[in-house]
Amino acid sequence: MKQFLFFAIFAALCMSCNKNKTAASSSRSVFQELTGSDTEEERESWNAKYKEKKYQRGSDPEPSLKSHLHLLPKGKVLLYPLEDGTNAIFLAQQGFKVWGIDYSDAAIQKAYRQARAAGVSITGINANLEQYEFEVGAYDAIIALDFFRPRLVEQVKKGLKKNGVVFYINSIAKPGQDDVLGDLKPGELPALFSEFKVIVAKEIPPTAEDGKTSALLIGRKP
What we know:
Blueprint lengths: L1 H26 L2 H6 L3 H12 L12 H5 L8 E5 L5 H8 L3 E6 L2 H14 L4 E4 L12 E7 L4 H10 E12 L16 H5 L4 E8 L9 E7 L2
Helix pairs in contact: 3-6, 5-6
């Protein structure tokens, strides 16, 4: 009887261990699986950067956003990633109500400070874009700035109102580097939003910064 009880307890412990291993594995994001990085470590790394007084992601808004601003409907806009708030502040100065997502809470705090200094108001959402669920039908426009993940395409579609507009700009993988996380394949972006009415779809030549061509898509949700 004692021997049977021992084996029963041992089997139960093994089952519990296997369940925990399965849960731990399923909770890892695609980013973690591909890079071996822990998302919390990533956040702390970005937090450390944004806490440096001299660190600045960019002093000017995204050029394509400035030049195509007239194509975006005024109203509630979701932008990601927020970073230090440069693009969000620019939009707020043009009369948009701006929400921005970033996993780094230090980035959001810096964006708030810069928004106050500029005399505008923005709203930060501290969330992991690998997991965050967009509010359904909440936004007149969604702006994605060089942060591509396949799951986010459906989130954008879900988050836009009817006739809402997506502004998506992202780097295209160089030839022979199609497996780089976050890069698009040539022609991939329009195909992902094939049901949208295309307003602008083009490729932007490489910059000296990273030498990569970018894809730009502006489209209207049916």
